[in-house]
Design goal:
By secondary structure, the chain is mainly α. It contains eight helices and six strands. A two-stranded antiparallel sheet has the order 1-2. Strands 3-4 form a two-stranded antiparallel sheet. The termini are far apart. The C terminus is likely disordered.
């Protein structure tokens, strides 16, 4: 769990809890923990549990980015999906859109709450030779960082070299169109809490037509309301120009009232 500690230090988060009891329950990331490690039983050897690191998957076509109406979330050319707190309007659509439930909200902050999630140490990885804190500190190199194409090559080489050791699939290679975080495992991925029913279609594909119409709707509705408001004001002015005399039948409205 040194990756949890390194992540917390780099992002000025509270230090993770220590002690074996932390692994007694399955945890998820939250606004104070961008990466966590969970323990799972090993069906091949009950004396040697399996550990899995959890963090944002940095999808190649992120659902969170497509759901954000104001562009607070952005997929960078380098790979990380980053977040701009100054632009966010707090709608939390990204939380509903993410197939992995990675974006979390600062519910504990009533003044300036923000979305929080792993950003793959973006400020580090854009530097020459930069590596995310979790990968840099991992002693057995269970987490490694590099170009996606290189990592996929390494992953498949390991599977081919030791088929008895790995499931014949790289998780993230095709899931939801492909992700920037990849997994190798010795047991089926659903036994490690990873969803295996997401399909291979990027989630933004399901909502692309709708989202393309959102800017048009946002443009049309204000214009429509302004038009209705202008018509109402003109009617009010016309009404103010009529006589208050109940016997005045110069307008249809007044005639109907006096009948």
């Amino acid at each position: 769990r040194l990756c949890e500690k390194a992540c917390a230090e780099v992002h000025n988060l509270p230090a993770p809890q220590v002690g074996a009891q932390v692994l007694e329950k399955t945890r998820r990331t939250d606004a104070k923990s961008f990466t966590v490690v969970n323990r799972y039983p090993n069906p091949k050897n009950d004396k040697v549990p399996i550990y899995r690191k959890i963090q944002c998957f940095h999808c190649n076509e992120p659902a969170c980015v497509s759901a954000c109406l104001v562009g607070a979330l952005k997929k960078t050319p380098e790979g990380p999906v980053i977040y701009n707190e100054d632009v966010c309007i707090g709608c939390r659509y990204c939380m509903n859109a993410c197939p992995y439930s990675m974006p979390t909200y600062e519910y504990h902050d009533p003044i300036t709450p923000a979305i929080q999630k792993c950003i793959m140490c973006y400020e580090r990885v854009i530097q020459p030779g930069g590596v995310p804190a979790c990968a840099a500190i991992c002693p057995p190199k269970a987490t490694i960082f590099g170009k996606r194409s290189d990592l996929l090559r390494i992953a498949h080489e390991r599977i081919n070299k030791s088929p008895e050791r790995y499931v014949d699939h790289v998780y993230g290679e095709t899931e939801v169109g492909s992700t920037g975080w990849l997994y190798l495992a010795s047991v089926p991925f659903d036994q490690l809490g990873l969803p295996t029913d997401l399909g291979t279609t990027p989630y933004p594909e399901y909502t692309r037509d709708f989202l393309l119409g959102v800017p048009l709707v946002l443009t049309m509705w204000p214009a429509l309301f302004m038009g209705v408001s202008a018509i109402s004001k003109e009617r009010d002015k016309a009404g103010q120009g009529t006589s208050d005399d109940p016997t005045d039948v110069s307008t249809n409205d007044r005639t109907e009232v006096t009948r």
